[in-house]
């Protein structure tokens, strides 16, 4: 079974047993303003996911089978929508 590791700025930020689970790891680096397009456009961000043959291969430091470039659209689609509670002190 394949194993996936999510990278942001060259550092591992999470992993998963499938691509969707690995994409959800990007919630750990969510930009304060929520602008994933701008965050991903930064050359330093370089979001990508490494796919390994298995979790054991990952643990054994085997080479990844492929590097999957991650786009802002992929991240946005993978993150759960969260309801924002209205502030009762501010007009709607």
How would you portray this structure in words?
The model has no long low-confidence stretch (mean pLDDT 89). With 92 residues, the chain is an alpha+beta fold. The chain has a four-stranded antiparallel beta sheet. It has helices at 19-23, 36-41, 55-59, 72-78; strands at residues 3-8, 11-16, 48-52, 66-69. The chain has one domain. Helices cover 25% and strands 23% of the residues. The chain has four helices and four strands; from the N terminus they run ββααβαβα.
Mean pLDDT: 89
Structural class: alpha+beta
Find the count of extended strands (DSSP E, 2+ residues). Answer: 4
Strand order of the largest sheet: 2-1-3-4
* Spatial extent as radius of gyration: 16 Å
Looking at how many chains there are and whether they match, the oligomeric state comes to single chain
Number of domain modules: 1
Concise structural overview:
With 92 residues, the chain is an alpha+beta fold. It has one domain.
List the helices and strands and how they pair.
Layout (H helix, E strand, L loop, with lengths): L2 E6 L2 E6 L2 H5 L12 H6 L6 E5 L2 H5 L6 E4 L2 H7 L14
Antiparallel strand pairs: 1-2, 1-3, 3-4
